[in-house]
Amino acid sequence: MSSEQIIQQAAQWLTRLHDEDVTDADRQAFHVWCQADPRHAVAIERMGALWGSLDTLPAKPARVALNCAFAPRRPRGAQVGGLLGVVLCGWLGLQHLPVWMADQRTGVGERRQIALADGSQLQLNSNSAVDVKFDGHQRVIELLQGELWVDVAKDAQRPFVVRTDQGTATALGTRYLVKRAADGTTVVTVIESSVAVKGDASDGVKVSAGQRAVLNHGRAQPAQALADTDPDAWTRGLLKVNDQPLSDVLQTLAGYRHGMLRFDPEALQNLRVSGVFKLDDTAAALSSLADNLPIQVEYFTDLLVVVKPR
User: Fold this and answer.
1) Domain 104-225 has what CATH class?
2) What sequence ranges are listed for the domain FecR protein (predicted)?
């Protein structure tokens, strides 16, 4: 069952359990549904977290793994508020629940290295999420958000595939990166050996070490040589740039900060950057940029920083 179907079912249960006509049979069926799939309880829990503090159903039947319980009856006014909450949660969930329910995810500014069951090594960049789907026939990583780096363990019987909404990147060797970019494209960068990149609406291309390919509108564009010489520097907590537009550098730093980093790309379009910056200290990186470029960095709060020409 897809995440979207689970979201819809969870929203229906929330609505039913807050109806004045809810029955004991409804509550029993709800508990059965929660226990049928771990993702069901996760969906209810996280929708409930958005909804706010909720009352608790009677303990019978048996308590599920997560606290997915709701009051049997509520005043009609509360029902209206609850239904509005369901609409809100459903709308948010359709966009974000797959990420909330991901097998592995990172927060803003966090990176995480993960040892997979097959011996492969996976690392997630800031604010990233993946589902891991291994079986006897294939190994699939669904990149739901952000960027990953993977060092693939060899297994001739089970292909290793990274999938996004644009297509797939199948390992023909070992190390590569896959990124879901802000513009909706998928970027595949090969560090070692080669990768078969295939769009959902096109034939595939082979991308070799030192090359990058973009999937856009389900089509794989021809592989191009890398402009940067250390594309996986982020796995070591570094941002290395060589004559890159300042706006690109600021956009990358923004992905490691809580809050907003505001700037006007047109006002900064003639400024370019070379250097090495620590991703775990974006304030120091911004300070260094201000020391070496004709820009000023203004902190209105820790959550709002504005960069503009001096």
Assistant:
1) mainly beta
2) 105-195
Q: Where in the chain is the domain with CATH 3.55.50.30?
A: 237-309
pLDDT for residue 61 is more than 70: no
pLDDT tens digits, one per residue of 97-148: 567 678 899 989 999 999 999 999 999 999 999 999 999 999 999 999 999 9
In this structure, what DSSP letter does residue 252 have?
H
| Cα–Cα distance, 250 to 272 (Å, whole number) | 11
Contact call for residues 51 and 68 (beta carbons, < 8 A): no
Q: In which band, very low, low, confident or very high, does the pLDDT at 65 lie, cut at 50, 70 and 90?
A: very low
Task: Write out the two tokens for 142.
Answer: 């669904």
Domain with CATH 2.60.120.1440 in the chain: 104-225
Amino acid code (one letter) for 145: Q
Degrees to nearest 5, angle at CA 162 with 161 and 164: 135
d(CA 232, CA 73): 54
CB 239 within 8 A of CB 285: yes
Kindly indicate whether the domain formed by 237-309 is annotated with CATH number 3.55.50.30: yes
| C-alpha torsion sign, points 265, 267, 270, 275 | negative
Tokens read off for 226: 């890398």
Q: How far apart are CA 207 and CA 213, in angstroms?
A: 7
